[in-house]
Design a protein that fits this description.
The chain has helices at 21-46, 54-81, 86-92, 96-111, 115-124, 139-152, 154-158, 215-219, 225-247, 291-299, 302-305, 314-320, 370-373; strands at 15-16, 19-20, 135-136, 160-164, 168-176, 196-203, 205-209, 212-213, 262-264, 273-277, 309-312, 332-333, 343-344, 347-351, 363-368, 374-387, 395-407, 413-417. The chain has 421 residues and is α+β, with helices and mostly antiparallel strands. The protein has 2 domains: 92-174 and 195-254 and 379-404, Major capsid protein gp5 fold (2-Layer Sandwich), CATH 3.30.2400; 257-374 and 410-417, hypothetical protein PF0899 fold. Strands 9-10-18-15-11-14-13-12 form an 8-stranded mixed β-sheet. α1 (21-46) runs antiparallel to α2 (54-81), α4 (96-111) packs antiparallel against α5 (115-124) and α6 (139-152) packs across α9. The protein is flat and about 70 Å long.
Length: 421
């Protein structure tokens, strides 16, 4: 069977040991495709120097594209399996106040009855209140939205996440530490200097989605309203914040790590991200292209390197998939098991489609300990404002959450710049 004959079904998957049959079939298909890719690419490399075989080049590219598509399908299946039903969460919400909030919220969403919610929020004086209107969703729904975002927002999945109740989070850091040294048991101790502190600020910006519902959907008691809201807003939130965490300019949105000043890694200073040049403008070098990846890995200090993760988009990943080490082994490897992640040189690889394609002076690859390097700030509270007037006969639900983000450790992330130097 060739890769063109493989068709993975993603409906009604059989569950076994926590992994659906569709996910297992998808993983098997990826392994089969990768073996076919390696055979074809090896043939292409063996023909290097002789007259180019256009059909062979096209075959390698076609398998590469099919492998990307299959990896995307597996990611989608993993996402579906990562969405637990909210019924179980609600069943565990035994607290009387939580049940009261949930009941009042459902009455508001279905019928527009806001009295009970207004009373609850007046009594609670919630820190999540704001002047834009709307009402806080129940805590279990807020947590569920957060879990779903962590599953599908690539940078959030590997970054540190901190919840705050105010509009801004300030993190102090030491620009110069106290003097230290070794002394003998009876030697005089000189007075140490005081540390010099500064603070990084991470303001929380408003992110919104506006799903629409019909009156029939809201009247249908069989429809799980919590589940509907979570599923409607998750993708919008994930796409918007994913783009901001990579390329956001910091104006009314988080600041993406690619928007900070960069400098050649040999001249790195705090406040800038270091980069390793590929050695060729808009491309990997013609010989030993994987050396750039090795240099990038070892540009990171050992304390960060052990938790390193590669971040790039699918096009860049497709180019790297053809690279081999000196022993003839492929640097890119598919997930070792269903539900796992692909790896590059034994490090996890995260696909972030907002990373730029390879081009002159592009910063198309990031590598680092993002848990220490990038901070996502979530302000407590997801709010919903019901609007039955603006798009009759539909009811709009203006859903907002406040999110911030930025680099918190400039030594923890390194970039590859596709430039001569």
């Amino acid at each position: 069977m060739s890769f063109t004959d493989i068709e993975i079904q993603d409906h009604a998957p059989e569950q076994k040991a926590g992994i659906s049959s569709a996910a297992r079939d998808g993983h098997d298909a990826v392994m089969q495709m990768f073996e076919e890719f390696k055979a074809s690419n090896d043939e292409r490399l063996a023909a290097h120097g002789r007259r180019a075989d256009v059909l062979l080049e096209e075959k390698v590219d076609r398998i590469n594209a099919a492998l990307d598509a299959q990896m995307k399908r597996i990611d989608d299946l993993a996402l579906k399996s990562a969405r637990p039903a909210l019924e179980g969460v609600r069943a565990r919400a035994a607290d009387g106040a939580a049940r009261e909030h949930k009941s009042a919220f459902e009455a508001y969403v279905r019928q527009g009855e806001s009295g009970a919610l207004r009373t609850l929020e007046t009594k609670a004086m919630s820190a999540g209140s704001n002047a834009d209107g709307g009402y806080l969703v129940p805590a279990e729904l807020e947590h569920e939205i957060g879990r779903r975002l962590a599953a599908i927002s690539p940078i959030r999945a590997i970054a540190s996440v901190r919840e705050i109740s105010g509009g801004i989070y300030k993190k102090p850091f030491m620009t110069a530490g106290p003097a230290t040294g070794w002394v003998g048991e009876t030697d005089a101790r000189t007075q140490t200097t005081s540390p010099t502190l500064d603070a990084l600020s991470f303001p929380a910006m408003e992110l919104y989605a506006m799903p629409a519902a019909t009156a029939a959907l809201l009247d249908d008691s069989a429809v799980n309203i919590d589940e509907w809201i979570a599923s409607e807003v998750e993708l919008t939130f994930a796409v918007q914040e994913g783009a901001a965490f990579v390329n956001g300019d910091g104006s009314s949105k988080p600041k993406g790590f690619l928007q900070y000043d960069t400098v050649a890694n040999g001249s790195w200073v705090w406040g800038k991200l270091g980069y390793v040049a590929s050695g060729s403008a808009g491309a990997f070098p013609g010989s030993n292209p994987s050396d750039v990846l090795v240099d990038t890995i070892y540009a990171l200090k050992a304390g960060y390197r052990q938790n390193g993760t590669f971040v790039m988009n699918r096009k860049t990943q497709a180019a790297i998939r053809k690279f081999k080490d000196s022993g003839g082994g492929y640097l890119w490897q598919p997930p070792v098991q269903a539900g796992g992640r692909a790896s590059l040189m034994s490090f996890p690889l995260i696909e972030a489609e907002d990373m730029p394609d390879i081009a002159a002076n592009s910063l198309s690859i990031a590598f680092g300990d993002f848990r220490r390097g990038y901070l996502v700030v979530d302000r407590l509270g997801v709010r919903v404002l019901r609007d039955p007037y603006s798009a009759k006969p539909y009811v709009l639900f203006y859903t907002t959450k406040r999110v911030g983000g930025g680099v918190q450790d400039f030594d923890a992330i390194k970039l590859v710049k596709f430039a001569a130097s």
